[in-house]
Specification:
Length: about 100
């Protein structure tokens, strides 16, 4: 029963994404500010679609997994707050955004 409910939820989300599109990737909203430190690269061990459920941007995670690479976040620290970029990671290429590929 639980599995059926889960499948229904995933199916509903996919239909909504197809109808309305994926959320746009936000741009940093800290104009004129310098980062407080170097960005932190957080590479998450997602190798199967089921492992993307906990990702902040699970849609990006699913795209990475389909390409056979890992989901990653590059986190920038500004005085006004934190900015996260969501993309993929490979040992050869390092971190990259899907829109730039």
């Amino acid at each position: 029963m639980k599995s059926r409910t889960r499948q229904y939820g995933i199916f509903t989300c996919m239909i909504l994404l197809l109808c309305f599109g994926t959320p746009s990737i936000p741009k940093p909203n800290f104009p004129g500010e310098e980062p407080e430190s170097k960005p932190l690269l957080r590479v998450l061990p997602a190798f199967r679609q089921e492992e993307c459920e906990w990702a902040i941007r699970w849609d990006v995670c699913l795209k990475c997994v389909r390409q056979g690479v890992r989901y990653a976040q590059r986190i920038h620290f500004y005085p006004s707050g934190v900015y996260r970029e969501h993309g993929c990671y490979t040992e050869e290429e390092g971190f990259f955004l899907l829109e730039n590929r």
